[in-house]
């Protein structure tokens, strides 16, 4: 058994920032970090890789080059959380005892939850996915090889990281087809499991308008359930909440000539899993290319631990990041139940909050008195090869915009902010634990008068 003042689990966006911040403040030997992977990824770049704007290698750096020299790195997974004894067990057989634990294990992709998706990703060059380093470079190849037919983009109903990413790549596809003379032969379809195109009304209105103007068909409450890549067919289920009767199935297939729909129309009956969610009708859709966003969840080791609530997320105070049951445990990022959209931008703001929370706990103060996370999150909604709507908002889904201009407009400046500035900010400040989000910039930009 080894003992540390701090143990950090996961060295992704949140864990890496916290490890560096803690090592800087508390010095050599104070912190152990458990992370199995050799490589740290700047995942927000994967949308740009999918669009052929960046090379995937630019999103990857050796873990060893980013972790602080003063931290002890255990290159293995945590296999068990034992918060009652202040211990984490690792797959290598180490038992690490801590005074304080910071957990940032993120989301893992649940590809097998969609039948045939793994086979599609491995066997069909036209099935792609920006959410994985392994598959991300298939997307741009699919753009290039696309000739005509349905270009389908999917998003599940369950929580995912960067909820805008499934449609950002669709707008890039639209722009790519437009610039390369393929648009008239393309039928672009967004099949989204959720009931809204985006959670924040202001940006949802902008995106709905963009889809209308560009002839993109949006089917809400429409979930991908199966991929049959040998026939290039995808199976979708339209879901609705609560209604006891079947309602008319109305998934649309676009207004362009010859949308290709094959078969479909099977009714399945009954309430799914005892819930009020009803599966209404199954449809088969032929795709020429398909960008799939798989379902995601925290890793099993967290889900099955005492740190997780019934939904599998780590239960923390949404304003302080402190665990609801174990006061010496903090959570950061995608694996927590903090009710905001899961992004690196949110993680940046949470880094600043956790620093305050840890300090307060060490001084026997109430963290709620010094740390108050407002839910800040941001989604740079790329809408083309030189345009972006920079969505920023809080827990109440109210816009919380950094710049004193209307960020609901598509702008070239925001595209460059995303493409050129954000990677610099990430590699030079965020991973070092030195970027706590743009709160300060926002206050200065608004001269203290608003927000
Ligand atoms: P991660 O960064 O995913 O890190 C989790 C870490 O935990 C990993 O290193 C993993 O190896 C480790 N881990 C897992 N299990 C264990 C275990 N048992 N033991 C030890 N370690 C473990 N965000 C934005 O702000 N803006 C964007 O434009 C944006 N676009 C995105 C586009 C795409 C395609 C994707 C995939 C993400 C995007 N994001 C964006 C989201 C952002 O990348 C994530 O929200 C962020 O990385 C979450 O950080 P995290 O620390 O919670 O998890
Ligand atoms: C941000 O802080 C951040 O984390 C580094 C991102 O992830 C890559 C973002 O996408 C955005 C938009 C922010 C917010 C920062 C500014 C300057 C608006």
What fraction strand? 15-25%
Helix content: 25-40%
**What structural class do you assign from the helix and strand content?**
alpha/beta
Shape: globular
Mean pLDDT: 91
Q: How many helix segments?
A: 12
Radius of gyration of CA atoms, rounded to a whole number: 22 Å
In this entry the ligands are: flavin-adenine dinucleotide, ubiquinone-1
Walk me through what this model shows.
There is one protein chain. The chain has 451 residues and is of the alpha/beta class. It is built from twelve helices and 21 strands. It has helices at residues 13-26, 46-50, 63-66, 117-123, 138-145, 165-179, 201-213, 300-303, 344-362, 367-370, 412-430, 439-445, and strands at 2-9, 31-34, 39-41, 60-62, 72-74, 78-82, 87-90, 95-103, 108-109, 127-128, 149-155, 186-192, 217-219, 222-228, 233-241, 277-286, 289-291, 296-297, 329-331, 377-384, 387-393. The strands form six sheets. Strands 1, 2, 5, 6, 7, 8 and 19 form a seven-stranded mixed sheet that branches. Strand 20 (377-384) and strand 21 form a beta hairpin. Helix 1 packs parallel to helix 9 (344-362). The model is unreliable at 242-280 (pLDDT under 50). The structure holds flavin-adenine dinucleotide (FAD) and ubiquinone-1. Residues 44, 344-345, 348, 378, 380, 402, 422, 425-426, 430, 435, 437-438, 441 line the site of ubiquinone-1.
